[in-house]
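Reviewers of the previous submission asked for a worked example of the structure-prediction workflow described in the proposal, so we include one complete record here. The input consisted solely of the amino acid sequence. No template or homolog information was supplied to the procedure at any stage.
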Amino acid sequence: MKMFKTLFIALIFLGLIWVDLPESIKTKYNIPGKIDVSVFGINIKKDFTTKLGLDLKGGSSLIFEADTSKVKREDLNDALNSARDVIERRINFFGVTEPQIQTVKTGNKYRLSVDLPGIENSHEAIRLIGQTAQLTFKELPGEKIATTTPIFLQLTKDTGLSGLHILKSTVEFDNQNGQPQVGLKFNKKGTELFASITKRNIGKPVGIFLDNMPLTTPNVQTEILDGSAVITGNFTTEEAKKLTIAINSGALPLPIKLVEQKNIGPTLGEIEVKKSIYAGAIGLSMVLLFMIIYYGRLGLIASLGLLIYGLISFFIFKAIPLVLTLPGVAGFILSIGMAVDSNILIFERIKEEQRKGRSFDIAVRLGFGRAIDAIKDANVTTMTVAFILFNPLNWEFLPQFGMVRGFALTLAIGVGTSLFTGVVITKRLINMFYKVK
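From that input alone, the workflow returned the following C-alpha cells.
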C-alpha cells in the first residue's frame, strides 16, 4: 500500500513537471505538449501551452465607443452584451485566438475594449469588428445540407426580413410544460413580412442568421399573422438566453466607432517577460535563502514545499487556461510571499512550543493547530481583496479592466494553492523527514 501511494505521488509530480515545462524545451526534445486520447469512446483533447496576454505577446489594443442613443435604458445591458458577443464571434472567425473583450463605462459613455494578442496588422480586424450586426431570415433549401458548408449559404433565399423588423426577443416559458422558449415580437412591417414567410413555408425550416452564420433553423408549424412568434426546442434556460441575446444583437442596433488604437510590438513583450523572469527568480532565490539560513532543516522543507507550490500554481494557469499578463505575473509573485508567510507562522509556533519544553512531535502538532487560524484569516482577507479587484459581477464602482482582473485572478489562485501547500504538503514533508508520529 505504501509503495502504491509513493508511486501515485511520483506520477502526479512527473505530470506537473511535464505540463510546466517551457514550450521551447518541449519543441527541442519533441515532447508532446497536449493530450489527445480517447477513453471509453470519449475524446479528450487538452492543450497545455502558456497563453500570453497582449502586454507580453504583443498585438493590438482597440477601444470602440458604442452609440447608445437609440437604445432604451432597460435594453442597454442586453445591447452591450450582444455587441460584445458579436465582436467575439467575428474575431474568432477572423482567426484571432484568446481575444480579451470587455465592456467599460467611462462617465456617461460605454466602450468596448478589445485586445488582440499576436495581431500587429489590425486593419482587417478593425473593419470586421466595426460593422453593425446583421440579423437576417432566410428560406432554406429542401435537401439536407450541413449548415457549416459554403454551399449551404449559397442555396438559402433571402426573405427581406431582418433584425430591423424585430422589436425584441425574450426568454419565455411554455404554459403547459414549463420548457424555456424564445419569443419574437415584430414591428408592423415585420409582421407583414413574417406572415408571408410563414404562409409559404409551413412544415419547412426558416433560418435565422447573424452575420451570415446560422443561429437556429426552426420549423414553421403554422401561419403567424399577429407578429408574435416563439421558437421551441429542447432548450435549457441558458441556451434560450444565449439565443435571445444573439437575436437581440441584430434586433438592437448599436453602432460602434473606433476611438483608440495601440500596437504593442512583440519585442516589448519579450523584454517584459525577461524582466519578469529575472524579478521572479531573484525574489524566489532570496526567499529560499532566508528560509534555509533562518530555519535550517525546516527551511529546506519549506523551500521544497514552495517549489511544489510553484509547480501546482503554474499547472493551474495552463490547465484553465489563464491568459498571463504582466500584472498577472505580479500577482503570482506576490502570492509567493503569502506562501512563505504561512510557513513562517507555522515554524514560529513550533519554536514557541519547543521553548515551552514540549517535544518536537507535540510542538509540530500544536504549532500547526494554533497557526492555522491566523493563516486562514490572512488568506481570507487577501482572497476578499482579490474578489473585489476581479469584480465578477461587473459593478460600476469597482475596477472593470482586464489587467486588474488578471492580477486578482493569479493572486487568488496563488493564495489558494499556498494555503494547500503550506498547511497540507509542508506538514506531510515534516512528518516524512522528521518521522513525526
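The chain has four domains: 1-49, 52-132+256-263, 135-251, 265-434. We consider this example representative of the routine output the project will generate in years two and three.
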